[in-house]
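Hey, I'm writing a tutorial for new members on how sequence and structure tokens pair up, and I'd like a real worked example in the thread rather than a made-up one. If someone can provide the structure for the chain below, I'll link this post from the tutorial.
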Amino acid sequence: MGKRVGGASRWISIGSFSIQPLEFAKLFLVIYFAWFFGEKQTHVKRFSIGFLPPILLTLIFAVLLIKQPDFGGAVFITAIFFMMSFIGGTRLLYLISSFILFSFSAVFMVLTSPYRLKRWEGFLHPFTHAKDSGYQIVQSIYGLAHGGLWGVGLGYGHQKLFYLPEAHTDFIVSVLGEEMGFIGLTLVFVALLFLLYGAMRVSISCKDLRDKFLMVGIAFLIVLGGVLNIAVVEGILPPKGIAMPFVSYGGSSLISLCMGVGMMLSISRRNVSKLT
């Protein structure tokens, strides 16, 4: 089901538009977890109430993503589950046990999949596999190195011209690094930290637990996407197809993120008097 691109069915075509359901699923999970832990706070330590429902829902989404296949997407929503469960008050024993199980499952899927194993080898030794599995990482690093401290100027980058694959989506940060340099990328990092700081500041003032969890969850969703994208671009993590929030080309990502920020602004407006 859906539009198949690059060996994966991650998009649904509606007329002339393509929608990526994962982007809306991320926001939905954050909203669900915020509501769940806000409502079930008195029973959150119980396995059958505070742990089983959220992990079962996460597993359903993860299995659907693995079938596409979208291993990176499954890892992303799993990270959302662990973060929201941690701040929601789930017992650490349950979280640590499930984390170990998830980790072994991820390693098993990598070792038993020639495609994923090849990408892992390309990540570990990109310059050895510079013409195949390590090509994206190598070209990304070249772009960052070419940018230096100040960059070559907006619009004057070379890597986006047939060298760097997915230059407008997954590796847009490499293009920014080449054109805006280290200083420009630092501004991107500062913007993410500023958003996280603002969200934490508002969440502290929230009396409603659902608002508190939702504020932190949406901020985490945005910052995690940015951190993972930057880590891939810099060769710290293997390529996962994760967009840079508000920067990468993609309507589904932009719409879902704008919905999330709208919710954050609504929560902030209700609590702004407490901050002043």
